[in-house]
Design a protein that fits this description.
The complex is a heterodimer of chains A (332) and B (365). With 332 residues, chain A is α/β, with parallel strands linked by helices. In chain A, 31% of the residues lie in helices and 21% in strands. The longest helix of chain A has 18 residues. Chain B is an alpha/beta fold. Helix content of chain B is 30%, strand content 22%. In chain B, helix 5 crosses helix 6 and helix 6 runs parallel beside helix 7. Chain B is globular and about 70 Å long. The chains are: A alpha/beta (332), B alpha/beta (365). Chains A and B meet through helix 7, helix 8, helix 9, helix 10 and helix 11 of A and helix 6, helix 7, helix 8, helix 9 and helix 10 of B.
C-alpha cells in the first residue's frame, strides 16, 4: 500500500464567458515512503496545480473544481474540510515552494516562522519550540542558528532562505514532502547544496518526496520514479534509469534532445520540439501533443490515447511510440 | 590569426554606495567588475558564465557603454569606445546590439512589432522611405522565423519564444557586427530554448555575427561558445576554448560549477564526482583579500591564497587565475573541508563575521 495514491486527479478552472481550463486532466501516480517521485514538465503542464490540489491550497471558490482522489494513509486529502486539512498540512504533508523570498513572511523573524509550526502541531511551549528551531536550522546547515532566529528573511541569502523554508517544512517530520521547483530560483552551486540536503533528509527519515521541476537533469540525479506531464496528463512514467534509457513517448524524447548537455561537444545541433506549448489539442480530440509531434499518425487524432503498460512498470501514453532500439535515428 | 573585433583591457565598473538624507556621502563601492581583460575574435562566440552577482551582466553593459566603465579600455574594431564623444558613440551603436533576457519587459507593450523594428532604423537613418524600411524589416523577420503578419501585432500577442525572436529581430535589423546577448534563453521553456539557440547559431553562420553570450547556464554556454570565460566576484578566473574548459577545468571554482550542473542522464549523474561549495558568494562591496575565491575554495592553501590576488596566466592553453592550478591538476593538493562563512545580502563593507559551523551538510563529498 503506497503512502500517497493519486487517482484521476483533475482540476478545472471555469470562468464566465471564457473557455474552461483543464489544468490537470486525470493525473494518477503513487508515492511510497522513502521514495522520491518526480513530476516533470514545461510551464503550463499542470505540475504546480497538482501540488496545490494535494495540499488543499487551491482557492475554494466557484469555478475551481477538483476531481479524483488522493488517498494519503487511508484518508482522501481531496475530501477533507478546511479544518482537518489544516491539521494534516504541515504535520503529515509539507511543502517547499520555489521562491523563498515570497513564501516567507518578510515582517516576521525566521525564528517565529519556524516555531509557529512546532507550537501549532507539536504542542510545544515557546522555550522548547525555540530549542527545537535551533536544532532544525542547524540540521539544514544554517550557520550560527541562535542568531539567525531573530533575523528577518531579507537578512539571509537566497540559499539560506531556502534552507529556512526547508527547516519549516521538516519541522514536524512530515511523512510526505512536496517540493515545487525548490532550486529554480537558486544558482547552480547553491542548487547542488540544496539538492544534497533534500536527499539527505529523505534518506535519514524515510520521508517521501514529490519533486516538481522542469529540469530533467535534477530528476535524473534524484528521483526514483519519474512522471512526465504534458497538457495536464502524465504522458510517460517509469523508473529513473528506464525512462532515460528506454524513453518511448515522443515528447520525452523531444525534451531530452532539446537540452544542451554539458558533456556534448560544441556545435552539436539541438533538435527542438516544433511550435510552442500553446499548440495543444484538447485531450478529448486526440493526443494533446499531436500538433507538435514528429511521429504523428492518423490514429493520434479522434481518440485520446490510453496509457500503454509494459511488464517493467514503464508506461507511456502514445499510439506510435518512438522505437526502442534506435531512438536516435528514428526522427529523420 | 583571426582578427579581433572587440577587446577589453582592465575594465572596472564600481558603483558608489551612498548614505545620507540631503547630501549623499559615498561610504564604499560595489566592485561589480574589477579588472577584466578579454578579446573576442570576429565571427566567433565568447561565452561568459558565472552565478548571479558575479558582474557578468554589468560587464556586458559596460562593453556596450550602457553603463559607463569606471576605468579601463573597450576597443571595438580598433576604436576606443570609452573616450568616444556621445554623437560618435551613437553611430557606433548600430554595429553593436544587445539581446535582453526577458522579452516581455524589454519590449514596449504599447508598440507594435513594426514600430519596434522601425525605431532603430529611423534613429540611424537607415532606409530612405517607408517601403525601403519595410523591405529591410521583412527580410529580418524571415531571418528570425517570424511571419510577416507579425508586424501589426503587439508583444503580448506572442508566445515567449516568439517574443525573444522579436528581441533578436530588433537587434538584427540594424545589421550589427557584434551582439551582446544577456541570458538570451533563460526565461524560456526547454523545448523553446533549443529553437532560439539554434536560431542564434544559424544567424551567426549566415551573417558572420560575433556574439558575446552572457548566461548562468553552463550547458547553454558550452553549447554555443567557442571560448568561455568564467567569472567570479567581478573578475575572470578562467578562460579557455569551450571544449578544453569542459574537458579539463583548472580553476577550483570552474570545477565546482561544472560538477554542480545536473546532467539529464542517470548513468552520468550516479558516476560523477561532486564538489559542493560551502556558503554563498561574498559581497562584491567587500570582496575577500587575495584570491576572491579562497573563502569557499576546497583547495585553498595557507600561503598566498589569502594575501596575493592571482592574475590570469597561461597554463597549457588555458588562462587561469589560481596560484596552485598546476598542483591541483596534477593531484598533488587534496581538497579539504571549508568552514562556512556567513554572507549577508546588502553587506556594506563591515568585516565578515567568520562563524565556525561544524560542517555544512555534505560540504565536500
Amino acid at each position: 500500500m503506497a503512502l500517497l495514491d493519486v487517482k484521476d486527479l483533475s482540476v478545472t478552472f471555469a470562468r464566465r464567458g471564457q473557455r474552461t481550463v483543464h489544468a490537470v486532466d486525470g493525473v494518477s501516480f503513487s508515492v511510497d515512503a522513502g521514495e522520491v517521485v518526480g513530476l516533470v514538465g514545461e510551464s503550463g503542464c499542470g505540475k504546480s496545480v497538482t501540488s496545490l490540489a494535494l495540499m488543499g491550497l487551491l482557492p475554494r471558490q466557484r469555478g475551481v473544481s477538483v476531481g479524483g482522489s488522493a488517498i494519503f494513509d487511508g484518508t482522501d486529502l481531496l475530501q477533507l474540510d478546511q479544518r482537518s486539512m489544516r491539521d494534516v498540512r504541515g504535520r503529515d504533508v509539507a511543502m517547499i515552494f520555489q521562491d523563498p523570498l515570497s513564501s516567507l513572511n518578510p515582517v516576521i523573524p525566521i525564528g517565529l516562522q519556524v516555531t509557529e509550526v512546532l507550537v501549532r502541531h507539536r504542542d510545544m511551549g515557546r522555550e522548547a519550540a525555540r530549542k527545537e528551531a535551533v536544532a532544525l536550522l542547524d540540521r539544514v546547515g544554517i550557520p550560527d542558528p541562535q542568531r539567525r532566529l531573530k533575523e528577518y528573511p531579507h537578512q539571509l541569502s537566497g540559499g539560506m532562505r531556502q534552507r529556512a523554508l526547508i527547516a519549516m517544512a521538516v519541522a514536524c517530520q512530515p511523512r510526505l514532502l512536496i517540493a515545487d521547483e525548490p532550486t529554480t530560483a537558486l544558482d547552480v552551486t547553491i542548487q547542488a547544496q540544496i539538492l544534497e540536503l533534500l536527499k539527505e533528509l529523505v534518506r535519514d527519515s524515510d520521508t517521501a518526496l514529490i519533486m516538481i521541476t522542469h529540469d530533467l537533469g535534477v530528476v535524473a540525479g534524484m528521483c526514483d520514479t519519474i512522471n512526465v506531464l504534458y497538457a495536464g496528463r502524465v504522458v510517460e512514467t517509469a523508473r529513473r534509469k528506464e525512462l532515460f534509457a528506454g524513453r518511448r513517448h515522443p515528447y520525452t524524447v523531444g525534451l531530452l534532445r532539446s537540452i544542451p548537455r554539458l558533456d556534448a561537444g560544441r556545435g552539436e545541433k539541438l533538435t527542438p520540439i516544433r511550435g510552442s506549448v500553446r499548440d495543444v489539442l484538447p485531450w478529448t480530440e486526440g493526443c494533446a501533443f499531436a500538433p507538435r509531434c514528429d511521429f504523428r499518425v492518423d490514429a493520434c487524432l479522434g481518440e485520446p490515447p490510453a496509457m500503454t503498460p509494459t511488464h517493467t512498470g514503464h508506461e507511456y501514453r502514445c499510439v506510435n511510440p518512438v522505437p526502442l532500439s534506435q531512438p536516435e535515428e528514428a526522427r529523420a | 590569426m583571426t582578427e579581433v573585433l572587440m577587446e577589453v583591457r582592465d575594465l572596472k565598473v564600481h558603483f558608489p554606495i551612498t548614505t545620507g538624507v540631503l547630501f549623499d556621502r559615498v561610504v564604499g563601492h560595489v566592485k561589480a567588475v574589477d579588472g577584466v581583460d578579454l578579446s573576442v575574435p570576429r565571427g566567433q562566440t565568447y561565452g561568459l558564465v558565472g552565478e548571479s552577482g558575479c558582474g557578468k551582466s554589468t560587464l556586458g553593459r559596460a562593453i556596450l557603454q550602457l553603463t559607463p566603465p569606471t576605468t579601463g579600455e573597450v576597443r571595438f574594431d580598433g576604436v576606443e569606445l570609452t573616450k568616444l564623444p556621445a554623437n560618435k558613440m551613437r553611430g557606433m551603436r548600430r554595429r553593436m546590439q544587445m539581446i535582453f533576457q526577458d522579452p516581455m519587459s524589454s519590449l514596449d507593450p504599447r508598440q507594435n512589432v513594426e514600430s519596434i523594428l522601425t525605431e532603430g532604423l529611423a534613429a540611424h537613418g537607415i532606409g530612405a522611405g517607408r517601403t525601403e524600411r519595410r523591405d529591410i524589416i521583412n527580410k529580418t523577420l524571415d531571418a528570425v522565423g517570424l511571419p510577416h503578419w507579425a508586424l501589426s501585432r503587439y508583444p503580448h500577442e506572442f508566445s515567449g519564444g516568439q517574443r525573444q525572436r522579436i528581441g533578436i529581430a530588433r537587434a538584427l535589423v540594424l545589421g550589427p557586427e557584434l551582439i551582446v546577448a544577456d541570458e538570451p534563453v533563460s526565461a524560456l521553456d526547454v523545448s523553446i530554448q533549443a529553437q532560439v539557440i539554434n536560431l542564434l547559431d544559424e544567424l551567426q553562420e549566415e551573417l558572420g555575427l560575433t556574439y558575446l553570450v552572457i548566461a548562468h547556464d553552463l550547458a547553454v554556454v558550452r553549447h554555443i561558445s567557442d571560448v568561455v570565460g568564467v567569472m567570479y566576484l567581478g573578475a575572470l578566473v578562467e578562460e579557455a576554448p569551450s571544449d578544453r574548459l569542459y574537458r579539463e577545468p583548472l580553476h577550483p571554482y570552474t570545477r565546482a560549477l561544472m560538477s554542480a550542473v545536473p546532467v539529464p542522464d542517470p548513468e552520468v549523474e550516479d558516476r560523477r564526482e561532486r564538489i559542493l561549495l560551502a556558503g554563498d558568494l561574498p559581497s562584491p562591496a567587500n570582496p575577500p583579500p587575495g584570491c576572491r575565491f579562497h573563502t569557499r575554495c576546497p583547495w585553498a592553501q595557507p600561503t598566498r591564497c589569502a594575501s596575493e590576488r592571482p592574475v590570469l596566466r597561461d597554463v597549457g592553453g588555458t588562462k587561469v587565475a589560481c596560484h596552485w592550478a598546476e598542483q591541483i591538476a596534477a593531484g598533488e593538493l587534496r581538497p579539504h573541508e571549508v568552514r562556512v562563512e556567513l554572507v549577508r545580502p546588502g553587506d556594506e563593507g563591515e568585516a565578515p563575521s567568520v562563524v565556525s559551523a561544524p560542517s555544512e551538510p555534505g560540504s565536500y563529498v
